[in-house]
Every structure is written in C-alpha cells, then in structure tokens.
Amino acid sequence: MISKKSRCFLLIAILIFQIIIVKSQTYSVNPITPSNNPNPTDPPISLTNHVIKVGYKDFGFSRNNFTVGKGNVLRWEWEGNLQHSVAESTLETPCKKKEGGFDLGRHTSPYNTSMAIYEERTYVFFSDVADDCKKGMYGGINLPQGYTWPKDLAAPPPQIVTTPLNPTPTPTPTPTGSMSIAAAGAENTQESSSKSSSISASTYYLKESGYGIIIGSLVLISLYLLS
C-alpha cells in the first residue's frame, strides 16, 4: 500500500512532467516569417552605349549633342596625331574646367577609355589643350531644350548621328493570365503571413490547454491533501 506521503510525491512528479511537456510544445513550433524582398538597386551598367571620337576632323568630337540615360557607358576613342583632352565644364563657361568634374586627361591616338553615367543630368565637355575649345572642340550631353552655345565659340563640326549600341529594351506587357513579379511577391507575403498567424494561433491553443492541465492537477493535489 502506497503511503499518503509517497502518493503526494508521485502527484508532484506528474505535475513537473506535465510542465516540461507544455514547455516543449510551446517552443517546438517555429513561426514562418515572410522573407523580405531586396530593395530596388540602380540599373546595372550595360555594355558601351555611345562611342565618341576625340579629335574628330582634327578639332572636334564625333558626338557633341546627344542624350544618355543613367547606367549608360560612354567610350572615348582618340584619333589622329594631335593631342586632345576631355574635361567637364559648365553651360555658363564651356571652355573652363568645372571644379570637381571629370577629367580624362590629355592623350593622342591610340588611346581609349570609358566612363559610366551614374546621374542623369546635363554634362558639358571640352578639350582644354591650347585653343581647342575656341575652335569648336566642345559638346554637351542631355542639354536643355533650346540651349545655344556662346557666340564667341566656333561651331563644332557636324556630329556623327548614331543610335545607341545597346539601347534600353522596351518593356513588354505582362501576358494575359500571368502574374507580375510584384503581385506574386505580394501574394507570397500574404500567404506567409497567413501561415505565421495560423501557427501562432496553434501555439496559443497549445499553451492554453497545457496551462489548463496544470491548473487541474494543482486542484486535485489540493483536494487530496485536504482530505
């Protein structure tokens, strides 16, 4: 016959065992959190989009008034035996170096270099060798509409009009019946959130049922000890 004291210890052991089970049920369920999509980044730099001949027709640039977009790459190719440079200036003073602007240096053919456009704005460039600029060796990128160069500068030679080597592709419409990436991402996020909510609810009910068992056991122990 088990003594009253032994039965009391047995009930306490059962209670401790139930607490351990409730704890393991509570922490064994890991909620699924939706993965965060990476923030949009700047468009990748494509291959060369525009080629500009430096020293074109002796004192000029083959492209002196054209438009570029952010992420485009310009390739400058020196030609001829005369030394020329490519430096950034401003609309107000096309033949004076801009402080902090780009400067590709003075070179003769053969020399090539490339530069990427990271900011979509107006760029003015010229050759700062001797009086190259006065002779028409200057140009602009993304010039304001209707802008005219200062009257004291010789007109640049007619530029070679070319199309970009790697034009930006035209976006294609989403086919009927398909889902866009953004919509798919939103749906996945909602689905993940729903799963997370349902699992959290399951965890809640596990905890509540476990606590009910513990409270019931405590009541039984109290009644037994008082009897």
UniProtKB/TrEMBL annotation:
Residues 1-24 form the signal peptide. This is Phytocyanin domain-containing protein. InterPro entries: Cupredoxin (IPR008972), Ser-rich/MCO-related (IPR052953). The chain crosses the membrane at residues 209-226. Gene3D superfamilies: Cupredoxins - blue copper proteins. PANTHER family: EXTRACELLULAR SERINE-RICH PROTEIN, SERINE-RICH PROTEIN, PUTATIVE-RELATED-RELATED. Keywords: Membrane, Signal, Transmembrane, Transmembrane helix. The keyword Transmembrane applies. SUPFAM superfamilies: Cupredoxins. Residues 161-194 are annotated as: Disordered.
